[in-house]
Amino acid sequence: MNRALILMYHQVDTPLSERERRFCTPPDEFARQMEALVEGGFTPLSLDETLACLRGQASWPSKAVHVTFDDGFTGVLEHALPVLQRLSIPATLFAVSDRLGMDNDWMHSRGFPKRDIMTGDQIKALRAGGMTIGSHTRSHVRLTEISAEAVADEVRTSKQRIEDLLGEPVHYFAYPYGLQDGAVRNAVENAGYLAACSTRSGFNRPGEDLYLLRRIDVFGTDRLWQFRQKLHFGHNETSRFYPIKYYAGRLGARLGLPGLR
Asked: At what angle do helices 27-39 and 224-233 cross, to 10 degrees?
């Protein structure tokens, strides 16, 4: 099929609190999920390769998938990268440029434990290990709640600072909290990025807005059957009954039966 999944992770580490579990995938579970991709016949692509398919510049492989990480937690380097290297799975990390070597202060007020963010040297090590580095703004701000001038600064300056750190262009962006609107989306394009990832679920197909790419949120609480269900249906919702609901909806749409949609 001509479509690609993009998976979204945050932390790959042992959860420090119950509240954190949703956004923190244990290392052993992450390894099982990546092995399930390979065993399930998925074709891991880089974001460059994914865009080439979406633009019609490359042929679609079977069950295309890309792995992404938001924020820049140290567990991505310590726990995720070795698994990705072992299985030859490309990935992208979206870094918060002005928080490198600091912590996740944007999460403290919401009751999450303090976590270290990678230093500049660790980001360079991650890049040397094969991971693509994108931008997640300067400060993990809510872009829809600040002025147009501040949006432009967050988007453009973060790109420049990561480029200065790595000595290479930064092509990709992810919206903090998934918050975006038309003005924010256009600011990202105007800053020179080639594409941006949202938090909207679903498959990415030809014709998709490259600055609103869809991603599947992989929760730290997901069991392996839930992870596989997300891969199959391209949706964040999982349950034992979701396949029935999905296929009933498709049947209803074909038959024109509102009650089954």
From this structure: 40
Residues near 133 by beta carbon (within 8 Å), at least 6 away in sequence: 92, 93, 94, 95, 123, 126, 127, 162, 166, 170
Closest C-alpha to 50, from 73, 70, 67: 67
Separation in Å, CA 229 to CA 74, 134, 156, 222, 241? 28, 28, 37, 10, 11
The secondary structure element, H or E, covering residue 31 is helix 27-39
Contact 73, 11 (CB under 8 A): yes
Query: Distance between CA 136 and CA 63 in Å, rounded?
Result: 27
- Nearest Cα neighbor of 198 from 184, 181, 215, 183 is 215
112 vs 21: CA distance, rounded Å: 10
Which helix (H) or strand (E) segment holds residue 142: the answer is none
User: Tens digit of pLDDT for each residue in 189-216?
Assistant: 999 999 999 999 999 999 999 999 999 9
Q: Report the DSSP beta bridge partners of residue 73.
A: 117
Segment holding 71, helix H or strand E:
strand 64-71
CATH architecture of the domain 4-222 equals Alpha-Beta Barrel (3.20)
Sign of the CA dihedral running 57, 37, 33, 202: positive
Per residue in 38-66, pLDDT tens?
Answer: 999 999 999 999 999 999 999 999 999 99
Q: Give residue limits of the domains in the chain.
A: 4-222
C-beta of residue 245 within 8 angstroms of C-beta of residue 261 = no
